[in-house]
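Lecture 7 notes. Example A: sequence first, then its structure tokens.
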Amino acid sequence: MPSTAPDGRAGIDAGLVRRLIARQFPHWADLPVSPVERDGHDNRTYRLGETMTVRLPTAAGYVPAVAKENEWLPRLTPELPVAVPSILGTGIPGEGYPFPWSVRGWLPGETADLAGVDDTVRFAVAVGGFVLALQSCDPTGGPAAGEHSFFRGASPAHYDQETRHLLSALTGQIDVVRAAAVWEAALAAEWRGSPVWFHGDIAVGNLLVVDGKLAAVIDFGTSGVGDPACDLVIAWTLFSGSSRHAFRETVGQDEGTWARARGWALWKAMLLLAQHLDSDPALTADDHRVITEVLDDHDRLSVGGC
């Protein structure tokens, strides 16, 4: 299982993973270990043999997700329409690595790219169906939105100060007057619903596609129980036109929830734009696209459009 992915980020490398496995799961010690081709930010992930992965937090802030996912993914799995990670083992700190970690089943598929999806509307409906199925899971005892979810599922007001700083910093780069109106609308649309399960990061890197169809959803590290608005952001980050309409029609949700979703999308896109401006023209262009489409959607809806 060769991989060209760089190794050693956050002080974690394949050698460390081999030592942890040999010490704590010796029955798997002879299996090859290699970094996955596309790694996330919060965790490092390694292939372990042909059917497993090892997932290790890169910093203390991501550690709460280990116990949360290990407890709740097995409970949620039977209620969801596509595969999610299976937990095969929980590791403890060792070999100089300070955090708990986990062994999971490998899920085949490529990360979502509409260029490889044969029917974008059907794909949008499938993603929307997953969001609804997750919301329908019993929230009793589930982890309330908060620090462990990086405040996904809570009010976007948690990021108010940062957002206002970004609005000031991006003056001249985006239409800050229209952006401020989107943000104010998100804050005004206070969530008053009953808590439901949310994923917290429904994004292209966490949707796996096989044969052009949604096959799995991964990375529940920011999941919890609260306001589902954060799970609608993909309406702008991935979908457009008929696929966005299909996603919106599938998930439903009231206008206040969509207003908060636009706030979440705007905050994240501005944050990324500020990071990418001087370093990555392609990502900068995509950040601009998301912001523009969020602003346009807000303007259409504010005058009674659809």
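Example B, a different protein, same format:
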Amino acid sequence: MAALYNGLMRGEKPEGELRRGWTTGACATAAVKAAFAALRTGEFPDPVSITLPKGETPAFPLALEEKGEGWARAGIIKDAGDDPDVTHGCMVVATVREGGEGVRFRAGPGVGMVTKGGLPIPPGEPAINPVPRQMMRDVIAELGGTGVEIEISIPGGEVLALKTWNPRLGIAGGLSILGTTGIVNPFSCAAWIASIHRGIDVARAMGLRHVAGCTGSTSEDAVRNRYKLPLEAMLDMGDFAGGLLKYLRTHPVARVTIGGGFGKISKLGQGALDLHSGRSQVDLDWLADQCPELPRTKVLAANTAQEVLEMAGGIDLAQRVAAAGLATVRDVLKGAPVVADVIIVSRQGDIIAHAA
């Protein structure tokens, strides 16, 4: 068992299963830790271990080590496992300089800058998402640092970004540093949906009366905490709302909760059952219909669903979207003996709407 666990920490796969990988955020954090350790001790730890948000401790081999007067640089090749990730095989580089106040972030070559609203990071900031930023702050604090400048770069990232949604979202000049768990779970529609079905089978066999399907770790944590559900009740739904709901139609449990962020639940409210960004998009016309109090032209000019939510102000737009999502859920269940509710969770992990 220890050997299997250690293999999984290295991204290895049990026979017959897809191999998982690591996010750009995890790679950047490991590179930051290696570079800052070299600044402090003169030596680069290789491999370098970090602690992910869920407590796992993978180790990353270094592909680049450079050091000069007052700075150090480390690079890690991103391994996305068996996921067809556009950033698989790219090098994530961190350059660390000590001095100044607090931990400051810069976008190096190949890392984008945010130019539009509605994203987790405000305009004018490097496209380094909140969880990776916190992970980097944590490794700096772990090594006793206070004032540090961190520059993240991805050679060739400007070209790779053209294959992503970044240009449409207003992220200019490169890729984003992403991830909420540090782990890239390999993307296989059939395998993922099959695992959802097996999760429902297990829950039914255990006699569980309440299960939950969530789009990501933030919504999963919020829903599980609200209802105090056991781990076996948490179905790793991801983007496959249809795969979960259609199976529950013929293999019912007493209650199901669907949880997700505002954008994902907006797509569910529109009637989409595959919530992946590559296969469904938020329809701003539909979103404008949900908040007629706002000028339609203003909604249609928004960059993201989150931006519409922010401009809605005192309008209870999230609750309206949750209700629309619940209507889709009930339509798919087609009268199965399953009581359903839908929860929308903010990026900070707070429940902002509940339709039941």
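Note on Example B: The mean pLDDT is 90. The longest strand covers residues 91-98.
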